[in-house]
DNA sequence: ATCCTCCCCTAC
DNA sequence: TAAGGTAGGGGAGGAT
């Protein structure tokens, strides 16, 4: 059973109550979750709050203390914290509990029952009533990017940030292993005939985040389950499902779907929380295991890798047995096809290409005309079993930090302060990989006029703008990056009188496209004014100019209002020594020009 | 031709 | 009570 404590309770500090619950075999939800919380514990609820939670099982802390003291689970309704509210008759409205029980007063199976004091640890006697705990006043959650704590909190909770940064860490971690495998491969090539077949296996963990969550919730393996942040219990909260298991997929639930939509498809869906630390250790285990099977290893993501098995294969019939050996539950029918993005898939469907086999029916020029030269050629090859994709690692070319959530600035200094935080982040990452950048790009997303105003903290429909600049010298200094971002790529416009709400003003505004995600085949871009070569970075130009730009014919020299997103990206990163040596190798006249 | 800048798209 | 990041491939169109 899983309890959530609402507000503070009169009997004892919340932390102590929580510790008691955990100690005696209960689970604890920091946030109430419709799908995992079985009971709520509350001392004093305001009438509106009572109304809000009237469909849930809400008991007083005394219920927990008495149950522990008596060594058995007492019926919660004797301790209901909702006595002022008439009991509802429609119990079917109750969300599933961890045990699937929907009737009130259900007693969980013994294995999960709250009172199970181990003989060695006598139950703590019920705490005597005390005065209310001193107001714990934890710092309120940072609401949006105006809050200086926002960035850190956001990163702690963003799964996409986790995926991306963990992938970069993985690649760094794998480099020595990769080098070693490469060395062995060269040795083999020198001493033995090349393998008759090139066999690359694609290893991908099933519903990764959910599978990790199952380790602590084995009771749910047969249920439809997703991993997502807790939703607001009341009404309209919804969060994105990072991963869902195959039971849930049978209902149509998908990774990346929002919980409100998912629940319409599958009302019994259970949602479990993230556990980023566990993903890390599990991924490390995965890669350690794969290294022992493979003669080549290409890390793709936290749950996925290519392994080169060519030397182990002398005949095609060896392939499946080997795959079975590597993964006992290997299921050929689940072998994922190459997935296509929305836009490409639509264009292909227009050519009557739905499966890979259909690709043989389309000529290469036709594919190239529809999809671009490169992708057309690549897909033409795929249709014929040709994949020239290389299996190597390239050094990283860019480092970037980007936030498109919680961006709600009212004034320019807020926006600039946030830019300073982002550039500081980029500088730190450069330092951590021992690199400097020779180029920087700033990207801004501006909320489109037709964006949905009810949007919570997401970015919604936006126009995007970007501007980049080459540095005279490569740098990894946070201050330098911040200066460039705030004064060279973007600067406070002259027309700040606009309610004091001018936020960013592109030195050279460009016309943006319609939206970030979604069907992006509107008009192409254009309207680029002259790009004259920028001066070397420090010192910044003293007199920035305002340039009129146009989007759909309207003057658009500044961006105003509740804006959206920011990215600070540095390009052409290089080892520190290299940056200097390249510079020193330049002919003196060019060098003087740069410095 | 090739490079550069700004933009789009994809994957996890 | 949510947490739409991040890196890379690549194209259009102008500059060189
Ligand atoms: N839109 C997405 C897609 C994936 N992920 C995370 C959660 C996934 O568990 C993990 C791995 O992604 P996969 O594409 O491999 O998806 P799963 O492993 O969840 O499912 P499958 O069994 O189809 O591989 O990345 C995410 O947060 N958001
Ligand atoms: Mg997977
Ligand atoms: Mg995967």
UniProtKB/TrEMBL annotation:
GO CC terms, sorted: nucleus
Source superkingdom: Eukaryota
Domain UmuC, chain residue ranges per copy: 200-308
Pfam family, one: IMS
Spans annotated as Disordered: 99-145, 511-549
Chain ranges of the BRCT domain: 1-81
Keywords associated with the record: DNA synthesis
InterPro entries hit by this protein: BRCT_dom, BRCT_dom_sf, DNA/RNA_pol_sf, DNA_pol_Y-fam_lit_finger_sf, DNA_pol_Y-fam_little_finger, IMS_HHH_1, Rev_trsase/Diguanyl_cyclase, UmuC
Family matches, as PROSITE patterns: BRCT, UMUC
Top-level taxonomy: Eukaryota, Fungi, Fungi incertae sedis, Blastocladiomycota, Blastocladiomycetes
Protein name per its UniProtKB record: DNA repair protein REV1
Keyword Protein biosynthesis in record: no
GO biological processes: DNA repair; error-free translesion synthesis; error-prone translesion synthesis
């Amino acid at each position: 059973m899983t309890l959530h404590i609402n507000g503070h309770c009169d009997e004892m500090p919340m932390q102590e109550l929580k510790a008691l619950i955990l100690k005696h075999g209960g689970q604890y939800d920091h946030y109430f979750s419709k799908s995992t919380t079985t009971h709520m514990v509350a001392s004093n609820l305001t009438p509106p709050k009572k109304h809000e939670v009237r469909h849930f099982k809400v008991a007083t802390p005394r219920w927990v203390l008495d149950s522990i003291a008596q060594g058995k689970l007492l019926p919660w309704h004797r301790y209901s914290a909702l006595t002022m509210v008439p009991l509802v008759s429609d119990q079917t409205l109750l969300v599933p509990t961890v045990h699937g029980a929907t009737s009130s007063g259900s007693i969980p199976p013994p294995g999960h029952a709250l009172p199970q004091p181990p003989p060695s640890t006598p139950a703590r006697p019920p705490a005597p009533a005390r005065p209310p705990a001193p107001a714990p006043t934890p710092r309120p959650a940072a609401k949006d990017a105006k809050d200086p704590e926002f960035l850190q909190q956001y990163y702690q909770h963003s799964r996409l940030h986790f995926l991306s940064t963990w992938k970069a860490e993985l690649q760094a971690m794998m480099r020595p292993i990769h080098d070693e495998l490469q060395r062995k491969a060269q040795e083999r090539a020198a001493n033995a005939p090349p393998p008759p077949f090139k066999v690359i296996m694609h290893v991908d963990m099933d519903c990764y985040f959910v599978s990790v969550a199952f380790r602590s919730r084995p009771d749910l393996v047969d249920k439809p389950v997703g991993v997502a942040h807790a939703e607001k219990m009341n009404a309209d909260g919804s969060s994105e499902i990072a991963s869902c298991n195959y039971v849930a997929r049978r209902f149509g639930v998908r990774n990346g779907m929002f919980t409100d939509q998912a629940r319409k498809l599958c009302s019994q869906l259970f949602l479990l929380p993230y556990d980023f630390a566990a993903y890390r250790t599990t991924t490390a285990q995965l890669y350690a295991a794969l290294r022992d099977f493979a003669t080549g290893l290409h890390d793709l993501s936290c749950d996925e890798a290519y392994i080169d098995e060519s030397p182990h294969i002398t005949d095609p019939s060896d392939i499946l047995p080997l795959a079975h050996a590597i993964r006992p539950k290997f299921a050929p029918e689940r072998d994922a096809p190459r997935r296509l993005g929305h836009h490409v898939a639509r264009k292909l469907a227009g050519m009557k290409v739905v499966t890979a086999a259909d690709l043989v029916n389309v000529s290469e020029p036709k594919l190239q005309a529809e999809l671009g030269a490169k992708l057309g050629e690549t897909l033409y090859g795929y249709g014929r079993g040709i994949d020239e994709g290389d299996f190597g690692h390239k050094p990283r070319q860019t480092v970037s930090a980007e936030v498109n959530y919680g961006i709600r600035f009212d004034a320019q200094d807020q926006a600039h302060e946030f830019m300073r935080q982002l550039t500081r982040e980029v500088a730190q990452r450069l330092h951590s990989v021992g690199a400097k950048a020779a180029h920087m790009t700033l990207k801004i997303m501006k909320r489109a006029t037709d964006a949905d105003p009810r949007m919570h903290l997401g970015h919604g429909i936006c126009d995007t703008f970007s501007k980049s600049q080459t540095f005279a010298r490569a740098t990894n200094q946070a201050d330098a990056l911040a200066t460039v971002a705030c004064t060279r790529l973007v600067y406070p416009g002259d027309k700040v009188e606009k309610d004091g709400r001018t936020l960013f003003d592109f030195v050279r505004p460009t016309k943006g496209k319609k939206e970030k995600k979604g069907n992006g085949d509107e008009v192409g871009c254009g309207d680029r004014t002259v790009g004259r070569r920028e001066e070397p970075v420090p010192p910044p130009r003293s007199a920035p100019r305002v340039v009129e730009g146009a989007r759909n014919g309207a003057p658009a020299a500044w961006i105003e209002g509740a804006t959206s997103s920011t990215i600070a990206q540095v390009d052409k990163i290089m080892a520190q020594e290299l940056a200097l040596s390249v510079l020193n190798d330049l002919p003196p006249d060019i060098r003087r020009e740069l410095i």
